[in-house]
Amino acid sequence: MGEELEAREAVRQAYQAHYRRLVAALYALTADHAEAQDLVQEAYARALARPKQFLDVADPEAWLRTVAMNLARTRWRRRRLFDTLVRTGRVARPVESVPGVDADRVALIAALQQLSQVTRETIVLHHLADMSVHEVAETLGVPVGTVKARLSRGRALLAALLTDVDDDHDSAPRRERVIEVRPITEVTDAS
Asked: In which element (H, E) is residue 59 found?
């Protein structure tokens, strides 16, 4: 029984240490704060379902992030049917929720949603979760070169998506929107 309590305490400590960072990373992937919270909470619920196994995990945050991302992928696959129903007009899409954040963060999340899922995951893990290229490659199960290529393409696409064009003057120079992308640790520590 003592090991069970120790395992539950490890999950509780992991919750206090990593919850906000995980939600921020999943929010960047899903663009839906409520869904991000739900995915992370489900990851913690799975840890609580088998707390003794959670004790054996070398990096609890990485384990929880992987579980949450796998849950997100499963939801994306299931959502394809829903999207088909929305496109055919049989179902109305619900109003999206955006938590009270600044306009730049909303623009970044909207731009991230226009990237492919694999590119978005790579960008989020590297730039927002502050993981090294090698850690991202290991997490996603792809070669380091693939991660570097996705990061390069993803940054180029984000730069194009986050560039503002002055609508009043067709010949006006393009203005780039400068958005500071800080690792999640800095965002959650400052909040």
From this structure: none
Cα 139 from Cα 84, distance rounded (Å): 30
Q: What angle do CA 129, 19, 111 make, to 5 degrees?
A: 45
Spans of all domains in the chain:
1-98, 100-191
Question: What topology is assigned to 1-98 in CATH?
Answer: Rna Polymerase Sigma Factor; Chain: A (1.10.1740)
Bridge partners of 176, per DSSP, are 163
d(CA 51, CA 69): 20
Nearest to 7 by CA among 56, 55, 69: 55
State the Cα–Cα distance between residues 24 and 33, nearest whole angstrom: 8
Q: Which two tokens stand for residue 177?
A: 């929107």
> For 7-28, what is each residue's pLDDT tens digit?
888 888 999 999 999 999 999 8
Fold classification of 100-191 is Arc Repressor Mutant, subunit A (1.10.10)
Rg value, the chain, Cα: 19
Neighbouring CB atoms inside 10 A of 190's CB total 7
Q: pTM score > 0.90 for this model?
A: no
Q: Are 108 and 162 in contact (CB under 8 A)?
A: yes
Strands 163-164 and 175-176, sheet pairing: antiparallel
> 51 near 10, Cβ under 8 Å?
yes
